[in-house]
Design goal:
Elements lengths: L5 H11 L16 E5 L3 E7 L6 E6 L1 E5 L5 E2 L10 E10 L2 E4 L6 E3 L19 E2 L4 E4 L1 H4 L5 E2 L4 E2 L4 E2 L5 H4 L18 H5 L8 E4 H4 L5 E9 L12 E10 L4 E5 L4 E2 L10 E7 L3 E12 L5 E9 L6 E7 L6 E7 L10 E4 L5 E5 L10 E9 L2 E12 L8 E11 L2 E5 L9 E5 L10 E5 L6 E7 L5 E3 L2 E3 L6 E7 L6 E4 L12 E9 L10 E3 L2 E5 L9
């Protein structure tokens, strides 16, 4: 389990095995752009019949030069221009996911001389002057003549090689040497043969045709040489409404723009981030937790790769050994199950590791989701580890401070015993000294049925035929309670303010009246065993 001090130790360990460090080699402190507006979104074309079709989406962007130098803004076969990454996200049923595919990236060309943010100092069409703004319409940002694959671009350095690029090769690919001669082969005539969705942001009808959802689109500018420390305002999102007209989707802005990652839109979530030092781009982690009322907590994570070139192949979430995990899930941006991540506990049980197959890594301008339920409570004094997918300068993993299931004061000792399902037992509150409100709750028993709660502090668990008395051979009763209509009962177990109890492990179990009984106890069923670690100085993990 990682405490506040543990990231420092982990960081030092990672440094020992890191590749040789090289800082952002092309950083220019005078470069600073701000994505000032993304108001405007439209469906530019569709394929298929509603409601199983797909839509090619475009958005408006308006960027401002907030720095002290003019920024090169040259044509698409000259690498000296910015790039615009776009995506569409949806919040539904308490989770925010990316619903657009990993679309192609817009290559900038020819800067305007508007003054949307400041007074413009023009520097010619090949430069965005200081104080100047440049707007691209939905149609311009959706023009396939200027859209190229994301993997061709290094988002960390903002660099791109036009030779052998998508623009150079054409579609279909030209025969050598025309495919790699550095001259544009892709033409409007070739694009005219595309379907209306290809290479644009692809969003399915099924992902738009839902009730109770909120939709957002996000833009991000990648500018060669812009220092990492001033890039957060290159991101911006706006909420939009989606309505099917009978022929096409009507998408309209709500004029609710927010700067920064779209993960900030996720209701109830907490967002944090880190970069790989000064050697690669930033990764955002959003987390949302919910008490499920049965001793388990739901943990929901979204990871946004803003501009990390090496990508992510593992998400490692720390746990207390002995934590029970269930309900594991994952969401990416394609329908290929072959690229889905898998999850497994480490042999020591101290981490839940989500791992990507080859080709399924988290690449830049993409959001992936990971979720599970655990019987450990949340703590915000830990980090998750995002293991880099590719070799390169910097550390092999990025540590992001966030909330994890790091408090396990009530430990599952073993299963209950019944002919059917045995009752459950879980703690309510923290077993600190002097906590008079601490209690235990049972569930999944018969309604309106008496239950006896008992405990023990000494002796090994006792075998009773096929059942186990987890409290040890000399349990003591704590009282009787009747279950309610759902089969649940609550027992008050106030913790005395007695220093002699510090560090005591109290083992609880209950017997519930059950006509079907258990093989060993006839008319009673036994709950699972629960070990409660009492005290104020007890650590988060056993």
């Amino acid at each position: 389990m990682r405490t506040l001090l543990d990231p420092l130790t982990r960081w030092a360990t990672l440094l020992l095995v890191a590749a040789p460090l090289s800082a952002q080699s092309n950083a220019n402190p005078g470069i600073d752009v701000e994505l000032a507006s993304v108001l405007g979104i439209s469906a530019l074309g569709r394929t298929g019949a509603f409601p199983t079709g797909a839509n090619g989406i475009g958005i408006t962007t308006n960027v401002c030069n907030k720095g002290t130098v003019a920024i090169e803004w040259r044509g698409p076969m000259d690498a000296r221009h910015p790039f615009i990454a776009m995506l569409v996200a949806r919040e539904l049923d308490g989770r925010l996911t990316q619903i657009s595919d990993r679309s192609y990236i817009k290559h900038g060309f020819s800067a305007a001389t508007a003054s949307f943010c400041d007074i413009c100092q023009p520097a010619g069409g090949n430069f965005l002057g200081v104080g100047c703004s440049d707007a691209y319409s939905v149609v311009t940002n959706g023009d396939r003549l200027f859209l190229g694959p994301a993997d061709e671009i290094d988002p960390w350095l903002g660099t791109w090689n036009p030779v052998c690029s998508h623009f150079d090769r054409g579609e279909p690919v030209a025969a050598p040497p025309l495919d790699c001669d550095g001259f544009r082969t892709l033409t409007n005539a070739q694009i005219a043969a595309f379907d209306p969705v290809r290479f644009r942001m692809r969003v399915s009808d099924a992902d738009l045709f839902v009730s109770g959802a909120r939709f957002y689109h996000q833009g991000y500018y990648v500018v060669q040489g812009e220092p990492e420390g001033v890039r957060d305002d290159n991101l911006r999102s706006d909420e939009f409404l989606a309505q099917w007209t009978g022929v096409s989707w009507s998408l309209s802005s709500t004029f609710q723009e927010v700067g920064g990652t779209v993960l900030q839109r996720w209701t109830g979530a907490t967002v944090s981030s880190a970069a790989n030092g000064n050697n690669d781009g930033r990764l955002y982690v959003a987390v949302k937790t919910a008490d499920l009322g049965d001793g388990f907590t739901a943990y929901d994570y979204a990871v946004h790769n803003r501009d990390n070139q090496r990508g992510v192949r593992e998400l490692r979430v720390p746990l207390c050994s002995g934590t029970r995990v269930r309900g594991i899930g994952f969401h990416d941006v394609d329908s290929d199950v072959g690229t889905d991540w898998t999850a497994a506990l480490t042999a020591a049980g101290d981490e839940l590791v989500f791992s990507a197959p080859a080709g399924g890594e988290l690449r830049w301008n993409t959001i992936f989701n990971f979720w599970f339920e655990a019987d450990a409570q949340p703590t915000s004094t830990t980090t998750v580890e995002l293991v880099q997918a590719d070799p390169g300068a910097g550390l092999p993993a990025v540590l992001v401070a966030t909330t994890t299931p790091g408090v396990l004061r009530a430990v599952h000792l073993g299963p209950g015993c019944a002919t059917g399902n045995p009752p459950t037992l879980f703690a309510s509150g923290t077993p600190a000294l002097g906590n008079g409100a601490f209690g235990l709750t049972s569930g999944e028993a018969l309604p309106a049925t008496p239950q006896i709660l008992f405990f023990g502090t000494a002796g090994a668990p006792l075998a009773l035929g096929a059942c186990t008395l987890w409290t040890g051979p000399t349990p003591r009763s704590l009282g009787v309670a009747m279950t309610d209509g759902t089969g649940s009962a609550t027992f008050g177990v106030p913790i005395p303010n007695d220093a002699s109890l510090e560090g005591t492990l109290v083992r609880f179990q209950l017997a519930s009246l059950d006509p079907s009984g258990s093989p060993a106890l006839r008319s009673f069923a036994l709950s699972e065993g629960l070990g409660v670690r009492v005290g104020n100085a007890v650590g988060d993990c056993p």
